[in-house]
Amino acid sequence: MLAYLFVAIAVAFRFMPHPLSFTPVAAALLFFGARMPRRQAWIPVALLAASDVLLTKFVYGFALTPDHFVTWAWYGAAVGMGMLVGGKTTVLRVAGASLASSVSFFLVSNFAVWMAWEMYPKTLNGLAMCYAAAVPFFRNTVASDLMFTAVAFSIPVVLELLSPKTAKDSIVA
Fold it and tell me: Angle at the Cα of 123 (from 120 to 127), degrees rounded to 5?
């Protein structure tokens, strides 16, 4: 249930004012992948893709472009990264997945922008310019991914520690 709550928060967060590239999207996808059955992996991808369509077409008034499909594929990959964390949740694995999600999104999404849009020349220099222009957004991506992922994966631990059963077990021990 908590995984669905995090996805709902990530979708809602995108419709609220927030600093650029500072969202809980990667954290929600990683957590969902780590905690939910594989057969449900399409759900957060579909919800975030639907929010992309709503935001792009109706809020920003832009057309959908091929780079959206790359972003949606990345959503699926992020859920897959969460599956790799799975039941072996350690601080190192969660932090690694968070950083991997930040870096992979930066690389994949900016490559897609370079390919799909006419903002940069279709040369290696143009690709380098595209990545260089995205560096300020990458800082917020890394910060938000690490922060929100730490919070998401910490909440079940805190809830477990606060549950009456855990408190009762620690008194007996």
Answer: 55
